[in-house]
Request: fold
Amino acid sequence: MIRSLVLTALCGAAVALYPKGSVINNGNWTDVDGKFIHAHGGQIVEYNNLFYLIGTSQKEGPGALSEGINCYTSTDLMHWKFYNEIMHNTSIVSSVGSPPWRIERPKIVVNKQNNNFVMWFHLDTGNFAIKSVGVAKCDQICGKYEFVSGFRPDNQDSYDMGLYQDNDLAYLVRSVANTYAGISQLTPDYMNTTGITSTGPRMEGVTIFKLDTYYLFGSHLTGWSPNPAQLCVTPTTDDVRYAIWDKNATECPNPTTSSTTYNSQSAFVVRFEDTVNKKYSFMYMGDIWNAPNVGDAYYIWLPIVFNSTAAQSFPSVPDLTEWTFGDYEVDIPQ
Reply:
């Protein structure tokens, strides 16, 4: 959890202004009512003076399925209040497959053009029969989302996925047929993809972030069991659509000191921005799936450490029980 933070609001989907405090990874992931926080495979969104933690509900049953997607709110990243179940499993309607549905890795972006919020997630059956994404929309970030459609993006099988937003452009990154990572720009309404334009190595738990260039973070494919992370860097600095990644993962090493990524799998990377002092800090959000007891999964939040602001510098992710954002700053590239 996070303590002692001073925050300024920034209207954005994946960027929050600068926290002044410490992260404590002690397993105490309960909300202000004392209930365990269930927001698995999720993200943190900062919007209109609040932080929103969005992820799936508790994994249950032999298929480790979730009943829905939850939203929590906080003003300090330490005290989380359960706000709403923003979508339930039974609200999904698909002509392919049958419920109960597999809902995984929900991500929300703000569509300024339509003044709404769009959520994507991995949509599947319990036995992975449809390999699709689900798309939903809402006028409020933590309102009840309307399911819009489920489909195979760019007519390709899709598994673990994430969204990356850069100003008014948004991109889907996902494990395509569990053979490679594929990146596609979304349509202006964020309801569909426009074709795969960049491919990376075989990975899941995929997420993108940017310093002076783009980084692709993911894991190997070992089910619920943890494995060494992969972190790729591209020489492409101006357009993630055409990012060049090492497809064989020989240049995408593990940024941690652990062969199990500290028993976690990547869910999201948050970039925090100090606009006054022109600093960034980055936070890795990981799920500790606690296999085979996935219903008891919890989280770990760690700094992504850049030792240099040089182009394409390679960061590390240390294992820390407690850390402070101010200790892991990097200059905003000019």
